[in-house]
Design goal:
Blueprint lengths: L1 H10 L5 H14 L6 H20 L8 H9 L3 H11 L9 H18 L1
Helix pairs in contact: 1-2, 2-3, 3-6, 5-6
Length: 115
């Protein structure tokens, strides 16, 4: 279902082929975890849209500092950083620090759900 969702975004020209191919690789990596399917859909859709947005405009909003401090305090933060490192190896754009924070926040939430 996750890859079908990405294909819908690609076929509607919301994301390009490179983004779709990258996110499908990420889906393969993340399926090693026992994440909630609906949360995975939300994360992979966010990732696809973020990478596409960065490719087109590079503009990304900042995560509020107080929220970022909460994210860093999650017991899943270190594992989220490892997962982030794995899934961004082949990313077709340079992810700005502000977007990295959003992605880490989503990964922490995914990992919290796994427990």
């Amino acid at each position: 279902m996750l890859k079908e969702r990405i294909e819908i975004l690609r076929s509607a020209a919301i994301i390009n082929d490179d983004v779709a191919q990258y996110v499908n690789k990420v889906i393969d990596i993340l399926q090693e975890y026992d994440f909630d399917e609906s949360k995975m859909e939300m994360f992979t859709t966010h990732l696809a849209m973020a990478v596409q947005r960065i490719m087109v405009s590079g503009a990304v909003d900042q995560l509020d500092d107080s929220i970022w401090n909460e994210v860093k305090a999650f017991n899943t933060f270190d594992e989220a950083k490892q997962v982030y490192s794995n899934i961004t190896r082949d990313v077709p754009v340079k992810i700005p620090e502000s977007e990295e924070k959003f992605l880490l926040m989503h990964l922490c939430n995914l990992l919290q759900e796994e427990c």
